[in-house]
Specification:
The protein is α/β, with parallel strands linked by helices and 276 residues long. It is built from nine helices and nine strands. It binds glutathione (GSH). The active site is at residues 146, 222, 254.
């Protein structure tokens, strides 16, 4: 693992690191914020999965999470959203290929050699983090924005017991019924739609749900509402009696101005679950 930068922030350290990934067969970069409390021992870890076009950097510099994480003594990890580099497949559409890994393991050409973000985020990166940094593996939460909200919800529901809490900002809620989903799942997973079901937060909520607190925020002025389909997840939560809070935030769009506005609430929400 290589240290690319380390900067003092809110009494802790905001680092950026790169490493050779065996899951993605390329070098991967991630951001990790360690609060001051990490100097005295392992601290809880909150994952932040980012959306389309993002690298590890967007949320790290625009979501304003470090201040609240520092106060609560929580570490934050900001993984990249796809494999990258020469020899890694790509597409002119910003919603497919590099910057758009959708947190799945691709099985189809030309994506399958590198696009294994599910394994990267759920297996390889956690192993690396818990070996290298003072992080409490038994106290984790997960959140994310847009495509990253989809990743956070599907991963939380697929690993019962791993995450104490899950939250999402404007998540892609029902990708099997959306242009942000159908195109990518066809490309990465192929045309057999039965393989898509494991990656749809609405279908997973109906099937098994999440055994812990859930918080979802969605702006009512989001320019991508038709692709995000919040109504599908809200309905599934009600139908499945999933505990949780789904908030429609009046006038907010899809940007990091929306994310940063509600970040304090999300960090507090996870901090409360970590203390329970
Ligand atoms: N570039 C796309 C929008 C992509 C987009 O809004 N991406 C969101 C996540 S889905 C994001 O976080 N963008 C990076 C940023 O705002 O820093 C477009 O013009 O339609």
């Amino acid at each position: 693992m290589k240290t690319l930068s380390e900067n003092r922030a809110f009494g802790g350290v905001q680092g950026v690191y790169s490493h050779r990934s065996s899951a993605c067969a390329c070098d991967m970069t991630f951001g990790l914020f360690l609060p001051a409390q990490a100097e005295d021992g392992p601290v809880p870890l909150l994952w932040f999965l980012s959306g389309l076009t993002c690298t590890h950097e967007n949320a790290m510099v625009k979501a304003g999470a470090q201040r609240w994480a520092a106060e609560a003594g929580i570490a934050l990890v900001f993984p990249d959203t796809s494999p990258r580099g020469e020899g890694v497949a790509n597409d002119p559409d910003f919603a497919l290929g590099q910057g758009a890994g959708f947190y799945v393991n691709a099985t189809q050409a030309p994506w399958s050699p590198h696009f294994r973000m599910w394994d990267y985020v759920t297996d390889e990166l956690p192993r690396l983090l818990f070996n290298a940094f003072p992080l409490a593996e038994d106290v984790q939460g997960i959140t994310g924005h847009s495509m990253g909200g989809h990743g956070a919800l599907t991963i939380a529901m697929s690993f019962p017991g791993r995450f104490r809490s899950v939250s999402a900002f404007a998540p892609i809620c029902n990708p099997v019924a959306s242009d942000w989903g159908r195109l990518q799942f066809s490309a990465y997973l192929g045309n057999d739609e039965t393989t898509w079901v494991a990656h749809d937060a609405t279908l997973l909520t109906k099937k098994r749900g999440f055994d812990g607190p859930m918080l979802v925020d969605q702006g009512t002025a989001d320019q991508f509402l038709d692709k995000l389909r919040p109504e599908a997840l809200a309905e599934a939560m009600a139908a499945a009696r999933q505990g949780g809070t789904f908030r429609m935030q009046k006038g907010y769009d899809h940007s990091y101005f929306f994310v940063s506005t509600f970040m304090e609430d999300h960090v507090s929400f996870h901090a409360e679950a970590f203390m329970a």
